[in-house]
Amino acid sequence: MPARSIGNATISFGLVSVPVNLYSSSESKASVSFNMLHKKCGTRLKQQYTCPKDNEIVTRDETVKGYEFAKDQYVVLSTEELKAIEEKATGMIDVLEFVPLAKVDREYLEKVYYLGPDKGGDRAYRLLAAALQETGRAALGQYAARGQQHLVLLRPLNGVLVMEQLHYADEVRPTTEVTVPVGEVKPTELALAKQLIEQTANDAFEPTKYTDTVRERVLETIQRKIDGQDITADITPEGGGKILDLMEALKASLAKAS
Hints:
alpha+beta, Ku70, Chain: A, Domain 2, seven-stranded mixed β-barrel, two-stranded antiparallel ribbon, 5 helices, about 30% strand
C-alpha cells in the first residue's frame, strides 16, 4: 500500500519553489501498554485533575493555561492570547544554507519525514535531490508547523528527499555534562577490544536482521494468560556472575565470538 501523505509544504531555495507532500518515515509499533483497573470490579479507571489548595476535583472547562515565570508564580494566558503568540504555519520550508551532510552531528536529530513531489513539482524535486547527492551537502532550513518553528535538514536518500527535524543548539546538552574519570587506555586491552570489534563487524547496515524480541515475548506471554495458562513459571532469576577483570572479559568475549 502506498504511503499516505500527512501534510504538504513548499521547499524554497533561492527563487526556486518545490511543492512537496510529507510522509511519516516510520510506522511505530508502540510498546505493549497496560491499563489501570479497579481491583474490585475490573473497570478501567479515569484520570482527573485535582486542586491541592482547594482539595477538589477540577473539570476541564474550569482549567486555564499558565506559564511559570518564577517558582510557583504563573501568568495566565487566554485562548486568544495563546493563538496570538503561536507561530503561524506558513507551509514553507525555507532553506537558509547548504552544509556538508557529514558535518551534521547525529545528536541533533529529533524526527524524520519523507518528502515526495506534489503536483507540478517533480522536475524541481528531482533537480534538488540530484544536486544534493552530487555535492554531498544538505539543505538547512526552518519550517513552521503546529504553532512551532522547527530547524530542519533536507538530504537525499535513494532519489527521495528526507526531511530531518533537528533540535536547536540550546536544546542539546553538551557532552561536558557527562563525567568521565581521567585514566589510561592500556595498549593490550585496546588491541583485544579492536580484535573483538573486527570479529563482529559488518560493512553494511542491515536493520532487517533484528526484531523487538521483548515485545514479541510479552505478547506471546499475554496470549498464554488469555488462554488460561500459568505464566509465572516463566519468571526465572538471572544466572551467572559478572566478570570483573576487563582483560578476562575481553578474552572470554573473543572466545565466545570465535
